[in-house]
Amino acid sequence: MRRTLVRMERPADGVEAAVVPGVEIRPWRRSDDHPRIPGVYAAAFGHDPWPDDWDRFEGFDPGGVFVAEERGALAGFCICFPRADDGYLSVVAVVPQARRRGIASALVAAAVERLASLGREVVRIDAYQDAPAAVGAYRSLGFTTYDVVADDDADPRGSAEE
Length: 162
Ligand SMILES: CC(C)(COP(=O)(O)OP(=O)(O)OC[C@H]1O[C@@H](n2cnc3c(N)ncnc32)[C@H](O)[C@@H]1OP(=O)(O)O)[C@@H](O)C(=O)NCCC(=O)NCCS
Description:
The protein has a single domain (3-151), classed as Gcn5-related N-acetyltransferase (GNAT) (Aminopeptidase, 3-Layer(aba) Sandwich), CATH 3.40.630.30. It starts with a strand and ends in an 11-residue tail after the last strand. It is globular and about 40 Å long. It has helices spanning 30-33, 37-45, 103-117, 132-140, and strands spanning 3-11, 24-27, 65-70, 73-82, 87-94, 122-128, 144-151. By secondary structure, the chain is an alpha+beta fold. Bound molecules: coenzyme A (COA).
């Protein structure tokens, strides 16, 4: 399916760590969080959960996964990793019932800080144009569009908000 991909970027400096009352933003702990993250992904995107090997991809950075925990449950997570010339934010997901409280913003801030600590000066993300929450959240976090491209092999599934 063809969808339009908006490519966005922001400098890796100048991001402020955000605080969301009652929510802890922290690096993941593989032992506890690895099995819980696919369920958060499924709730956020309305898709089937990821398979167990979701973290076995080329370039995976074990220090680049951050979770948001509230009263013992995961409300969201994000994944980022360094590439040769930039840092890349590959997923940000927040469960529907925890949205619009700044959790994605706090997760992205943690990811940007991580990528800056690895010496990356720019952070890039790709978002589908038909996912207004994602594009809106990234824009509010200082990302600007540097390219718009057609993705002919796009995942036809939307997200849980659509
Ligand atoms: C996109 C997503 C991660 C945002 O999570 P969130 O915790 O609700 O985001 P925040 O509360 O940090 O929102 C920050 C800003 O983003 C913008 N934003 C968030 N949701 C929005 C929406 N539905 N429509 C328009 N703008 C939105 C707003 O400017 C918001 O600030 P405000 O609440 O003060 O107006 C969440 O909606 C989600 O998981 N969606 C499904 C998965 C997805 O599309 N992920 C991104 C691609 S990997």
